[in-house]
Amino acid sequence: MMNKLFCPERVFLFFGVLFGVMIMIFTPPFLYPDENAHFYRSLGILDGQIVVQKPDEEHSGSFLPKSIHDFENRTKFYDFLADRDCLKARISFKDISDASSYTKNGEKIFVNHINTALYSPVAYMPQLAGMAAAGMFTPSFLYIMFGGKICNFLFYLILGFFAIRSLPFLKWVGVLILLAPINLSLAGSLSTDPVLLSSSMLFFAKILQYSVGEDSKVGWKQVVLLAVLAFIIGQVKQNFLIVFFVFLIPKKKFCGGYFWKMAAVVVPSVVLSIVWGKIASGVLVPGNGAQPAKQVVYILSHPIEYLQTFFRTSRIFSRMLREMVGVLGWLNIRLDWWAYGLYYIFFVLNVIFAGECGGKIREMFSLKQKLFVLFLSLLIIFVISTNMYIVWSHVGAELIDGIQGRYFASVLLPIAAFFAITFPSKENNPVLSCFTILFSVIILSDTVYRLYSSFFV
Length: 457
Description:
By secondary structure, this protein is mainly α. It has helices at residues 2-5, 8-26, 35-46, 68-74, 77-82, 93-98, 125-135, 141-166, 171-178, 181-187, 193-212, 220-235, 258-281, 292-301, 303-313, 317-325, 337-352, 357-363, 367-392, 412-422, 430-455, and strands at residues 53-56, 59-65, 108-112, 327-328, 333-334. The protein is 62% helix and 4% strand. Helix 2 runs antiparallel to helix 8 and helix 12 (220-235) runs parallel beside helix 13 (258-281).
């Protein structure tokens, strides 16, 4: 009975709902990273603006109701942006409730949002469903926004639940990743990050399940699931390299038609990702003074200098490690130092006590497969960093600008899997599981308190 009650996926679902709802309540509208820009993009898509407008070389965005800015002002968004230390700006639930009077009706103006202009509509599908449903009953920005937040949150919970259930080992690592304050916080926002993370987690979990399960066979039913997840992953930030983890599945697991099944998973994701990237490139407005074409030429003509830049940027590794756990609000609300340290201690311990990874499962992976997981994980990190250098850093910059720890959340599980299948590990320890649950409750309680005290008290 206790094993069923405290199984990892149920623990995730229970505390995900409990703390996710509280985080959503105590984080005012727009006070997640770039949430205003994501809201603009979603509203534009709902209005039929699948590809954004680019009126000149400095602006790229959507035509939206003029009242959107009044709604932002009423929720004190700009007050909080100006008060980065959260010393004076405060909001009440009445302020938020009063903001419901602002609607999407009325005159439209051009709203610039270059940082989300390239995002595919597929990346917004969960929240678009909620926003469209809410929009059928009310024109209020507030209720439309929360319709999107709730559906994004449900998508994250459902895919996260099945990801943890599907993992043949590293289940508690999955719980730690999905319940990390930053990830659970973003799950209740309008960001596309929870769509990418939950889809990537389920995709990789299924790959591990199909790879090591003694009775696992990859038929067309499994291929369709992988193909759908691969398509979603490829459309969110064009991060299609993750789909190549499918080659980890042994050929013998396929019930015939290996080539066609692999092609069905990989080709649509990669091709459609490239197609959307080509379409969106026409409306690209680089940020921070970047010049993508010249930056690519610089990288190709100065590969050693760029590698030095890449490794030089790794000096901020400690900052990115904190961001992967939780730097909330507009990256201005930190947790206590102990929260970050303990998070990674529990993360490493749960990799060591990886469940059934000892012996048999580890032997199922060849050295070639283990190195493939490591290589592809590092390649994804390198490509994400390089992409930020191209579109967000000036030509020849000594550091990669705009890079944040949460961008690498989708490779945490593959990296953990590499260590679990490569080095000696132990069976899951019930005591460790209990302390992992306790730690998650403590860090999430601290998260809720910090959000409430920063925005409301």
